[in-house]
Amino acid sequence: MSxxxxxxxKLNLKNYKYTISYNNILIDGAFFYEEEYGFYFFTTHSKxxxxxxxxxxxxxxNIIYLCPNxxxxxxxxxxxxxxxxxxxxxxxxxxxxxxxxSLDDLNLDDNISLFTGGEILECLGSIFKLPNGNYVCSSVQxxxxxxxEITNNYGNKEHFFRGHYFYKYKLIPSLYRKKKYYDNExxxxxxxxxxxxxxxxxxxYIEILTTMQHxxxxxxxxxxxxxxLVALYMACDKPxxxxxxxxxxxxxxxxxxxxxxxxxxxxxxxxxxxxxxxxETNYKQELYEKIIESIEKKDDSIYKNSLAxxxxxxxxxxxxxxxxxxxxxxxxxxxxxxVKVGMINERIIAQSGSFILFGLCNYLTGEYMPLDTVTxxxxxxxxxxxxxxxxxxxxxxxxxxxxxxxHMSVSITKSYE
Length: 417
Hints:
Layout: E1 6-10, E2 17-22, E3 25-34, E4 38-43, E5 54-60, E6 63-68, E7 72-79, E8 82-88, E9 100-101, H1 117-127, E10 135-137, H2 140-152, E11 158-164, H3 179-182, H4 185-195, H5 197-200, H6 205-214, E12 221-225, H7 228-236, E13 250-257, E14 263-264, H8 268-274, H9 281-297, H10 301-304, H11 307-319, E15 337-340, H12 346-350, E16 353-357, E17 374-381, H13 384-393, H14 398-401, H15 405-415
Parallel strand pairs: 3-9, 10-17, 14-15
Antiparallel strand pairs: 1-2, 1-6, 2-3, 3-4, 4-8, 5-6, 5-7, 7-8, 11-13, 12-16, 13-17, 15-16
Helix pairs in contact: 7-13, 9-11
């Protein structure tokens, strides 16, 4: 097999810049790598239309030789009267030893002489389904297509969606993001309940937690939704005080959960997990350590004889007077659960809201058990300003997502700008 048909010659001007040489046509480009997206070679825009479907490469003395009909697919992206090319490397193949840019090098609007971060995101959106199985969507239409493909593969499961503005945002609740939060959970809980005592005095633990979540208090709840368009809106809606300009990428995570693993707000498991909020941190840490030791040594008496467990049972009895300890398994307090809650406020109704309720963590190290009962699929969201305009046409806006007077007034004002 000959390798002299196409060649990419590395330039000395900048260590990231390469040039494709093909039939006396020169097109500049650069390699790009992000773990979540994969490995690519992107070219600048050119009026020349290259007929390349797939290639293989060989690197020798700073020259990258290309041969047709290889396992690296070539995506042609039309833009106005020009073309841009993306070379998609297989996810399970060793990547070439070259300098590759990342999104950290490509601020959304900055130009590094070849292209902007926005142009790279546009290209990724055109690719749609990445070699690693993740999706990139740049419109409501492509997003719906991705959701249909994903959910059809898990037809026997229930689907939950989580949208967030930054694609590296981890699936953990606000409580576990700062030590000062989880160290003071019980005090924040009781302070909040005291301030709204007339409203909350007869409420269950989970109802108080969802009310706290509604008012943006740090809790052990993580918001999810059963409506994929709500999640898409959340991935496009810039949070207040968000300062970073480096990433123009949001994310929707699709969680496909077995129905048997889903809990409801009046289930015993939800009561056991939510009442952890009122335990002082020293009791929660002791309970965590004793449960871990009991599981490792297969001896339930270790946690049952602890003062922390007795304190925990006393709290449980405040809500479950019939609580039978013989049915209790300590793993319940470690594993997060998907919870469907009652439609207790207008925001949960508007957003088709549900939650992931997290259990104990190691309050010394911050370690926690992640949600491991679901299969997850990631959808990266780009071109978000345009998507927000499309969602507005579907009547998905701040007024409908946050149906309170403050957000409604903002939505009405924006509609006339």
